[in-house]
Design goal:
Largest sheet: 7 strands, mixed
Distance between the termini: 54 Å
Shape: globular
Number of helices: 15
Structural class: alpha+beta
Bound molecules: flavin-adenine dinucleotide
Strand order of the largest sheet: 5-4-14-15-16-13-17
Strand content: 15-25%
């Protein structure tokens, strides 16, 4: 008889979180676990979540996914960043780009030079003029980044905008080919061990009992094991992130295919616009304290640019997270562990971060409390930092034209964010951290885009002669523009590289 010491992992739920977890475990830890996923087609998946962050590329690469094949199957487009319209002030706009500002070559962050020139009264232009990703985005251009770090065409990064309902089935094929088992059915009960309190099995409607050593709760907002069964508390962050609903409605694409997601400020929240190959995703994320579902749906219908292809659909949520994501022998991944609104497309990233933590800290036989605590520490850090970054978008505004904007402008914010904002306002300094998703360029883009302009700059930016600084900035801007002009249109690149199967 073969002695199989692999752990039996039961994944509850087959949305994006469930199938990302299943595919990663069978691919990366084949000698350590058996994977059995249970999902219910009758319950279905959330089915939104179309914009991603560049980290997803590393995840797909680890799974051996061919980019062009994946993009064609999910009708994906490229994403160079997020455009924010009307956030700092009505009529404003800026892009949070993926990539650096400047040439990415110097020791010092480029925005210090930009800020020095601005404070000296030079006509420097917008910070975005010095970003390859921003320039490409506004010109609707795209090509893959250059591998040579000396070239300006290497200074941007990219993510995808894809059909949220196709990613999980795409991963399911991979996971099943690699040995993941799938059971269709509704779970009606979760059995705990009377002595230890650990989860022993899930019971399906047809009375089938599926036992496991480790359970991954990917049941979405139902939070079937970690929330309903184990009772892990949910930390509610509504006081800082008051949006608690979204109304979604896709439409036909009428305009050029933009290589970026738009987040357009609305009276009680904001509206997303995500161009895919075959349609445009739209949704209005709003706070039910400040508008009704009916008014939000009407505002969305009035705002979308193309012919609607479905009725408006309302989704409800609450900002926050479970106090711990790993409790006993249950790890929560995806919406069951918490939710932060999709303003910076962070949910799929959070799924990926949890999977990375789980793979790195995967139990040998017994679960070590040390590993579990470390996992929870990592996930807390991710959530807390994203939370602060999201709050910044709302709080750093001059808008007081609606009750919603006045509330977020004047609300007290977490001390951790207050300190970060003060540090930046003084001398443009970014709080550095080793772990966490948003690095310097992201914070810089949002601070400056929202109108927080530093009163001074890093002293090293003062060492350059004024005339040399002016010349260097001018030539950098020209280099970026010239490089972008030489690139193909976004649509042309897609048609050549990864057209969807029925595109012809
Ligand atoms: C309005 C909105 C916009 C979003 N936009 C983005 C975005 O742009 N980018 C991004 O990264 N993320 C976004 N997200 C988040 C993203 O949709 C989710 O993170 C992602 O879809 C993962 O969901 P999930 O797999 O955790 O849950 P779900 O998709 O809800 O899947 C849950 C699974 O659990 C199963 N299940 C539940 N109960 C049972 C049961 N009793 N028995 C058996 N099976 C069960 C269901 O059948 C399903 O398979 C958005 C979310 C919302 C609400």
């Amino acid at each position: 008889m073969v002695n199989d010491s692999r752990l039996k992992v039961v994944i509850v739920g087959g949305g994006t979180a469930g199938w990302m977890t299943a595919a990663a475990l069978v691919k990366l830890l084949p000698a350590r676990c058996h994977v059995h996923l249970v999902e219910s087609e009758a319950i279905g998946i959330v089915g939104v979540g179309e914009a991603t962050l560049p980290h997803i590329r590393a995840f797909n690469e680890k799974l051996g996914i061919d980019e062009a094949d994946f993009m064609a199957a999910t009708r994906a487009t490229f994403k160079l960043g997020i455009e924010f319209r009307g956030w700092g002030r009505l009529g404003d706009s800026y892009i949070h780009p993926f990539g650096t500002f400047g040439s990415g070559q110097g020791e010092l962050d480029f925005h210090h030079y930009w800020n020095r020139a601005r404070l000296e009264g030079q006509d420097v232009g917008a910070l975005g003029d010095f970003s390859m990703a921003v320039t490409m985005a506004y010109m609707n251009r795209f090509t893959l980044p250059d591998a040579d770090p000396a070239r300006i065409e290497s200074t941007f990064n990219y993510a995808y905008q894809f059909d949220a309902t196709s990613y999980a089935p795409y991963l399911r094929r991979i996971a099943e080919q690699l040995g993941a088992k799938r059971t269709e059915g509704r779970i009606i009960d979760v059995e705990l061990d009377g002595e230890s309190g650990d989860v022993r099995a899930v019971i399906l409607e047809n009375q089938e009992r599926i036992e496991g050593d480790l359970f991954v709760d990917c049941s979405g907002f139902f939070s079937l094991i970690i929330g309903k069964t184990l009772g892990e508390p949910f930390e509610d962050w509504t006081q800082w992130l008051p949006c608690d609903r979204a109304v979604a409605m896709p439409c036909r694409t009428r305009t050029a295919l933009s290589p970026y997601t738009s987040a357009i400020a609305m009276p009680a929240g904001w509206r997303w616009r995500i161009p895919l190959q075959h349609r445009t995703g739209n949704g209005y994320v709003y706070s039910s304290q400040f508008t009704s579902d009916e008014d939000a749906a009407s505002a969305l219908v009035a705002a979308v640019e193309g012919e609607p292809i479905a009725d408006p659909r309302v989704l409800k949520f609450k900002a926050g997270r479970r106090t711990r994501s790993w409790v006993r022998n249950c790890v929560a991944v995806g919406l069951s562990s918490g939710f932060l609104e999709p303003l910076e497309s962070t949910s799929i990233y959070l799924i990926q971060a949890a999977i990375t933590g789980l793979v790195e800290l995967f139990p040998e036989r017994e679960i070590s409390p040390l590993d579990r605590d470390e996992f929870n520490r990592l996930i807390d850090l991710e959530y807390d930092r994203i939370r602060d970054f999201l709050i910044l978008h709302y709080h750093a505004t001059e808008r007081d034209d609606t009750r919603f904007w006045d509330y977020v402008r004047t609300m007290p914010v977490p001390d951790s964010l207050k300190e970060k904002m003060e540090l930046f306002r003084r001398r443009g300094r970014i709080v550095k951290y080793r772990e966490g998703v948003f690095l310097d360029a992201s914070w810089i883009a949002v601070y400056i885009g929202q109108g927080i302009l530093p009163q001074s700059y890093d002293m090293r930016a003062g060492l350059v002669h004024e005339a040399s600084l002016t010349d260097a900035m001018k030539s950098l801007r020209t280099r970026i523009r010239t490089a972008a002009e030489a690139m193909p249109e976004h649509r042309e690149h897609i048609d050549h590289y990864c057209p969807m199967p029925d595109a012809a």
